[in-house]
């Protein structure tokens, strides 16, 4: 009887220790999160534009969602401005880290359109994103939403200025050993950092992000650099970063030629501010002109602030890239970048959105 009680007590003690250890590991594991709050290796979203037709009842907050656990776009039941959205769930980790006031977690938030300002600061890169990490891992969110997100002490919200046009973004979970490469890429992108905290424990490994946080960087900035990154679960990515000294269209002059594929590009096609499709180099770049959501639903590139491109259908190298820059004469003078993957589910999801594109003259 005594032996049975001792064995039962031992099992109970081990179970409690296991639960405690699991709680510590879960608390320390920063990751992209799905709408259930579960960790995912990556996710992609496509915020749909607000329609002019009021009968649809759409608010400009609806979005398509895809992550590493599903195979195709899912129209989310959540809205972009709710804390139950994928962005809301993921950024909740930022608010928890900020509230804890510990020195084991770092974050960096940047946007050329700062939430509290009506102006855009053109001396910085045309870049928008957020990083949150500790010495185990973290995530990098790259998106196209101006004035997003609010500073951590204000909590989660979605800007009204982000409703009218379409927007895209990608979140990738990275182990800490990838952050040194990310650090160098951010230097080239020259982001407008408006909220950050990088404790001294990270300064030995990461040189540029603490300087960007303090707005005191004196490092020489390369014209461009291509980095190979790997997500926490082994998904390979390439990140193209160009500075404002690389005076050319990032798509035609670099990405298409390096990826060895014709590219279909979807960027904000503002009238008289777009570059025409380009077939002057071995690998061509074509402007997408309309996006289809379903057989009955589509929208024009003029309504789309998203920034992405894919390999032309039928091409051997099937790439998808999501990032910061538009195909515009003015964007050739701006710094920014794109993160690219050959994940077939991401490629197929974006490829199905293409209604038609502009050929070369």
UniProtKB/TrEMBL annotation:
It comes from the Eukaryota. Pfam families: DNase_II. Its EC number is 3.1.22.1. It is found in: Lysosome. Residues 1-27 form the signal peptide. PANTHER family: DEOXYRIBONUCLEASE II (PTHR10858), DEOXYRIBONUCLEASE-2-BETA (PTHR10858:SF2). Belongs to the DNase II family. Hydrolyzes DNA under acidic conditions. Does not require divalent cations for activity. Participates in the degradation of nuclear DNA during lens cell differentiation. This is Deoxyribonuclease-2-beta. The gene is DNASE2B.
